[in-house]
Amino acid sequence: MDGMSPVKYAELGAFLRSRRERIRPADVGLPVGPRRRVPGLRREEVAQLAGASVDYYNELERGAGSQPSEQMIAALARALRLTVDERDYLYRLADRPVPAQGGAASHVHPGMLDLLGRMTSTPAQVITDLHVTLVQNPLAVALLGDQSGFRGPRASFVHRWFTEPDARNLYPEADHAGKSRSFVADLRAAAARRDAKDAETGTMIRTLLDVSPEFAALWADHDVAFRREDRKRLLHPTLGLVEVNCLNLISEDGRQRLLWFTPAVGTDSAGLLELLAVVGTQEVVAESAVSSPTRTAGSPPRRRG
Q: d(Cα 291, Cα 192) in Å, to the nearest integer?
């Protein structure tokens, strides 16, 4: 049974069911509806929130099915608003290693997830201090593309910025030099706040110094500055240039940031962001129509570009 004992499969299913039944639909931004026959969320609602098929999630609650991947466990933990202890317990039940804080599977505090869920009319996402996207709301996906499917070093947008030219297509070329300098100064600030022996940060910096002369030159300048707020010019494939203010709410330990995007004053971006919900929905539907029918449960959605 994929390395999991029948006892752990049964406990995994029981634990998921207990966590599902304690959550009210309003807690995760779902309508209550007049005819709810079960406490908490329905199974199909959890599956939707976690990006899994309903059949797959039903199998998990029955204590059957295939061993859930680390990505699926992270998605379930967020969908069920688990505490960090509950999330770690879920990983252990599934015989998966508990991920270190800071990577793509980092635990997002339920309170931050709750706030993100209430931002239904503005693009918003949670990232780490190394610019690893942890979770996005639908409008953020529509504005920025799905940034949550990357793994390993590529999970960091800063890493992709200096190693993959296509990552820069999100910004006008005239803004690239300024963004590069800002990313490096922010990374230096994040590295200083973390423990000096932090392997994730050290590996990232050494890799970028080796492969990117631009990064190495900017790193040698020793600029340091957290990006607490920013004005961005974004290139959207359908809407064109969208100018926004990017605001930050930083977690107490500094390792996570809730970002949300508002239209820049003096531009037509307010109207463009209103169109974003329609355009984003159409693109998601179009992508779903061409997606592979064999996509495994918990795999990331297709990315634009």
A: 42
Model pLDDT, residue 102: 58
Q: How far is C-alpha 168 from the geometric centre of its chain's CA atoms?
A: 19
Tokens found for residue 245: 């203010």
Calpha distance 222→117 (Å, rounded): 37
| Phi/psi of residue 104, nearest 5 degrees | -65, -20
Report residue 233: phi and psi, to 5°.
-110, 115
List Cβ neighbours of 222 (8 Å cut-off, separation of 6 or more).
188
As given in the structure block, the two tokens for residue 212 are 């990117």
Q: Are 138 and 273 in contact (CB under 8 A)?
A: no
| Burial of 220 (C-beta count, 10 Å sphere; 0-12/13-18/19+) | exposed
User: Is a pLDDT exceeding 70 seen at residue 2?
Assistant: no
d(CA 22, CA 182): 43
Within a 10 A sphere around the Cβ of 205, how many other Cβ atoms? 16
3-state secondary structure of 133: strand
Measured from the Cβ of residue 94, the count of other Cβ atoms closer than 10 Å reads 22
Strand order in the sheet with 256-263: 133-136, 124-128, 256-263, 240-250, 229-236
Summarised one tens digit per residue, pLDDT across range 149-174 is: 788 899 999 999 999 999 999 999 99
- Do 218 and 180 contact (CB within 8 A), yes or no? yes
User: pLDDT tens for residues 111-127?
Assistant: 788 888 888 889 999 99
pTM for this entry = 0.71
